[in-house]
Amino acid sequence: MKVVIIEDEFFSAEKLSNQLQRIDDSIEILAILPSVESCLDWFRNNPEPDLIFSDIQLEDQESFELFRQLPIEAPIIYTTAFDQYALHAFKQNSIDYLLKPIDLDELRSAIKKYENLEYRLLKKGLKLQPEKPKEGFKERFLVKKGSQLAVIRTSDVAYFKSDQKLSFLITFDNQRYVIEQTLDQLMDQLDSRKFNRISRNRLISLEAIYKIHNHFNGRLKLELNPPEEEEVYVSRDRVPQFKEWLDS
């Protein structure tokens, strides 16, 4: 994995470099860039990296200006001491948003999110690049993450489930969040080509299906990614439309 770090604080850049090496010593850091001006010069004269780690407040201006000026397609993980930029960040090619000081486990989770996205697209023969908005369908969810708020892209959602009158969103890297929408509401907000209501309490992404097994009494048993602790079934009355969905 080839990485560029956009960071104007020397010690923050050094710490991030060391953390990346601890996680995977094969990660190659192509450049550490402290300003929008230096970024413009570098990106105009070099191939894009696989992944960008970017602070927001740089020594000359906000890094958002770089992405306004250049059509950079590489995914971005934002690293900043401030949380007020989260919504703006996710309008860029962002796949995660990490607050300083960066926790090693959260950094590892962010890299795993990138790797999962890359793997899913490579299976389809596609290049890793930002998804174009699908008009009319929900593109992101605002969720609580501890004492903070986070934005989760719909493309990162493996499945939704309801339990005890609560609705949960589960991502491909197995992060779980409570959301306000009911599954009935989600049915009207999501692309039905990508999400299917397999039972009264579960709505899944096509990309989350790992294996399908015939089961007793006409039901189908699913293995999902990420795996669930409980067994997951397509209810008998939904099996015909589920098969039609898979074959469409």
From TrEMBL:
Coiled-coil spans are none
Leader peptide range in chain numbering: none
| Residues carrying 4-aspartylphosphate | 55
Decide whether keyword Phosphoprotein is in the record: yes
Molecular functions per Gene Ontology: DNA binding; phosphorelay response regulator activity
What region holds the Response regulatory domain? 2-115
**Tell me, what's a Pfam family for it?**
Response_reg
Q: What are the protein's UniProt keywords? A: DNA-binding, Phosphoprotein
Residue span(s) of domain HTH LytTR-type: 141-248
| Protein's name in the database | LytTR family DNA-binding domain-containing protein
